[in-house]
């Protein structure tokens, strides 16, 4: 569908608050909020509770701004994919120009307010995150290279670094490792989704790895990234954000995640699609819990540390 037809359709439907909120990708925003909050609470030092609330709020707004800019630019792709046809622009609820205006306005607002509420290191990281997701990933990498999600995954990995910087005014090895954990998690998580989404990305002309190099190569990549992810995740247990709670969580989760990656890797392409998709969906579902529980364990270590129960 052309931009003109999308806008014409949008003009015939009245958008609700929920449609505009959907532009901000609230499910993605929830992950941004959680990992940023963990980075903030795990950092040495502290903020006044009101400052901490404002920091998380403005980071969330910045994440939502990125989502709106992504939906503005990708409305043509979203129209072609079953997974995204219900989004506000292709569904005819919101015009592209509205999404662009909202994205730009919220980007500027979130960066300036985060700088005023905390410091301009955190604000600078937030600004770079929005730029990276909206421009580097959405406008360039996504339609150009099958490594799009590998490089572009950095955008979703910055929130814990921003939360950390909001408290400390800088970057440390612990915040870099939290970034790396999310960065390395993104490819296997997203490639598993691609494997059971069948032809969605091919129909939209997006060069995802399984479209350009095939499903077998994608399975190989999932296994390699999962092995590297496990090394990083378990290694984090012996840093300033780790401890026995985190180590136990990491050992269990990475054993399960590796088993799932091996199951996908060993899949015979000649077996029924139903059996294969079942494995891929199970791995994808586990990947959602994987990141949440790792950061949950980091949070537990941070909250229990003052009582002598967290950390080493």
Automatic annotation (TrEMBL):
Its EC number is 2.5.1.141. The keyword Ribosomal protein does not apply. It is an enzyme of class 2 (transferase). The keyword Ribosomal protein does not apply. One of its GO terms (molecular function) is protoheme IX farnesyltransferase activity. Keywords: Cell membrane, Heme biosynthesis, Membrane, Transferase, Transmembrane, Transmembrane helix. This is Protoheme IX farnesyltransferase.
